[in-house]
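Bumping my old thread because nobody answered last time. Still need a sequence for this structure:
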């Protein structure tokens, strides 16, 4: 998806604190590549337990989240990785043009949830760091994803767990989800099957 192909109308809900879902953001071939890369990173042992917080507050808290991550930067010399980088750059430009967010760069990692993986309700902005503006998830899972398989992205429009209404977004391969990092309370429900994604944040300049 290039800058020209991104329809501003599909992004408008971000302006009111909502979320955006765009299916087929990755082609089947791209999806196969990124899924295989995530599996390779898991099998080669370079993924590490994900932490919460940063700096002195950073800690691994497996009772809150038990996914595994590895930070990546798409290789401009690799056709598929360069294509994704170009598409995400177009998305960054579209978000800036639509909302004047001042998005400057993107941090990105591969995420793997093993069987039983989950992430409790949270927002994506650190307590003392407001650089993350827009959260982004691109799901890499294979085949259909029925609701009984869990692994749903839950987003609350108000309140919180067991209080306010929420929606469930299935982690269907190739699906892109966007939401505001500071204000969107969300969680990942436990799943009995592995679940992978590209997860990132469009950030403002220091």
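Sorry it took so long. Here it is:
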């Amino acid at each position: 998806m290039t800058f020209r192909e991104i329809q501003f109308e599909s992004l408008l809900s971000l302006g009111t604190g909502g979320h955006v879902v765009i299916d087929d953001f990755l082609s089947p071939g791209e999806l196969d590549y990124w899924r295989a890369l995530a599996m390779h990173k898991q099998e080669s042992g370079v993924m590490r337990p994900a932490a919460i917080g940063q700096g002195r507050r950073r800690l691994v808290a497996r009772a809150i989240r038990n996914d595994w991550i590895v930070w990546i930067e798409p290789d401009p010399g690799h056709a598929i990785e360069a294509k994704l980088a170009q598409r995400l750059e177009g998305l960054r430009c579209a978000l800036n043009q639509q909302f004047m967010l001042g998005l400057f760069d993107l941090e990105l990692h591969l995420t793997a949830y093993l069987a039983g993986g989950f992430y409790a309700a949270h927002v994506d902005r650190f307590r003392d760091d407001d650089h993350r503006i827009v959260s982004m998830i691109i799901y890499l899972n294979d085949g259909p994803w029925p609701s009984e398989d869990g692994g749903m992205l839950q987003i609350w429009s108000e309140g919180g767990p067991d209080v306010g209404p929420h929606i469930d977004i299935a982690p269907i391969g190739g699906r892109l989800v966007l939401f505001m990092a500071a204000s969107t309370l969300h969680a990942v429900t436990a799943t009995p099957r592995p679940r992978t994604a590209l997860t990132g944040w469009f950030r403002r300049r220091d």
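The helical segments are 28-43, 79-99. Let me know if any region looks off to you.
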